[in-house]
Design a protein that fits this description.
Participates in transcription elongation, termination and antitermination. Keywords: Transcription, Transcription antitermination, Transcription regulation, Transcription termination. This is Transcription termination/antitermination protein NusG. The protein is built from three helices and 13 strands; from the N terminus they run βαββββαβββαβββββ. By secondary structure, the protein is of the alpha+beta class. It folds into two domains: 106 residues, Alpha-Beta Plaits (2-Layer Sandwich); 49 residues, SH3 type barrels (Roll). A five-stranded antiparallel sheet has the order 12-11-10-9-13, with no helix packed on it. Strands 2-5-1-6 form a four-stranded antiparallel sheet, covered by helices on one side. The chain is elongated and about 75 Å long. It starts with a strand and ends with a strand.
Length: 176
């Protein structure tokens, strides 16, 4: 038999509790040879609140937990009857395993350990508006983009002279 990754539905907000319950059940029922890993995919996101930047962990798929297992009647029963589990993802009563490329995408995202920076659609030469900081309200032209640092270098015109600034992605927005 081959082990595959399956997705189980849970009550939203109970993903971590279901993971803990399932891990306890696997140990107490001796299913370590059929149920291997249980994951709640998380990603770190940069959040700006009240002008302060903070990394927060967010669930990638709220209401779902991933389980790596060999699907047998016994392993299905253990997972399906864990408190908080509402069912497997699949058609009818037969769970459908994730495809290899789906597993690679999910595990690659979750296990990279690199916080995800805010998504931006900026380009060099683009005019942007400064949203916060001492230059709030000024518009400027992007000179360089540093995606690994989450920053842009732009020039704003101040007193008739171009002034270079380096700002976080979160401090600028596209002109509307």
């Amino acid at each position: 038999m081959e082990k595959d990754w399956y997705v189980i539905h849970t009550y939203s907000g109970y993903e971590n509790k279901v993971k803990a319950n399932l891990e306890r059940r696997v140990a107490s029922m001796g299913m370590e040879d059929k149920i291997f890993r249980i994951m709640v995919p998380m990603e770190e996101e940069l959040e700006v609140k009240d002008g302060k930047k903070k990394l927060v962990k967010k669930k990638v798929f709220p209401g779902y937990v991933l389980v790596e297992m060999i699907l047998t009647d016994d392993s299905w029963y253990v997972v399906r009857n864990t408190p908080g589990v509402t069912g497997f993802v699949g058609s009818g009563s037969k769970p459908i395993p994730l495809l290899d490329h789906e597993v690679r995408m999910i595990l690659g995202r979750d296990l990279s350990g690199v916080p995800e920076l805010p998504r931006v659609n900026f380009s060099v030469g683009q005019e942007v508006l400064v949203r916060e900081g001492p230059f709030e309200g000024f518009s400027g032209k992007i000179e360089e983009i540093y995606p690994d640092r989450g920053k842009v270098r732009l020039t704003v015109s101040m007193f008739g002279r171009d002034t270079p600034l380096e700002l976080d992605f979160t401090q600028v927005s596209e002109l509307e």
